[in-house]
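Anyone up for a design puzzle?
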């Protein structure tokens, strides 16, 4: 048994493919290229394959990670080349490397992620984005309402400790935010919450359907 991780990008119309459909796409691509996946035991065996951090529908990314196990070893360059031959336009393997046979999963080691958020705005607004970012970050607390699925209630949450870095600039008619925020099982901040919180504090109106969000990297501990 061998264990690998591929780093891949996801863009274009494939931003709208679901998490489960993306798993199916990789499963079929591995099978077509005769890369034999290791399966779990039991009544409902499934391939040992998982994403480090599922990507929200509609987001693009240049830094996604998929880990998987195979029944036999393969050269990492062979996996990369074979998969890039078969994957559809909009998804491509950037790198492939081996992982230790045992140890934590990438999902368990996920700690933070980088995002780029583009917010359309009128050029004549003359936004001083650096001043807005500074004013936002100098708050003692940054309180948002977060919906809890289990209880069905909205609870107050201080997201300031989960914002590791935030920068902004104006590009043509868009405000660009680049941020590094907590991700994973220990602490997880949605870029959607950061977006709504920042725009509310900075009095920036926006239409969510016009905003684009891209994940550019995921960081791991250990």
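Challenge accepted. My sequence:
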């Amino acid at each position: 048994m061998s264990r690998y991780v591929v780093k891949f990008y996801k863009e274009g119309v494939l931003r709208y493919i679901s998490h489960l459909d993306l798993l199916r796409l990789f499963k079929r691509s591995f099978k077509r290229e005769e890369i034999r996946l290791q399966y779990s035991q039991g009544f409902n065996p499934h391939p040992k394959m998982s994403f480090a951090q599922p990507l929200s529908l509609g987001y693009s990314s240049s830094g996604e990670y998929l880990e998987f196990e195979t029944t036999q070893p393969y050269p990492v360059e062979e996996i990369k080349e074979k998969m890039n031959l078969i994957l559809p336009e909009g998804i491509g393997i950037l790198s492939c490397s081996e992982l230790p046979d045992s140890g934590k999963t990438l999902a368990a080691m996920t700690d933070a992620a980088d995002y780029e958020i583009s917010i359309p705005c009128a050029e004549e607004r003359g936004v001083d984005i650096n001043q807005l970012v500074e004013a936002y970050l100098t708050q003692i607390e940054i309180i948002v309402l977060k919906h809890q699925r289990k209880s069905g209630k909205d609870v107050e949450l201080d997201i300031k400790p989960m914002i590791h870095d935030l920068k902004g600039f104006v590009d043509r008619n868009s405000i660009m935010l680049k941020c590094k925020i907590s991700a994973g099982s220990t602490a997880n901040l949605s870029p959607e919450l950061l977006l709504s919180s920042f725009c509310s504090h900075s009095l920036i109106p926006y239409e969510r359907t016009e905003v684009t969000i891209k994940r550019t990297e995921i960081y791991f501990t250990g």
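A detail worth pointing out: The chain has two domains: 2-103, 111-220.
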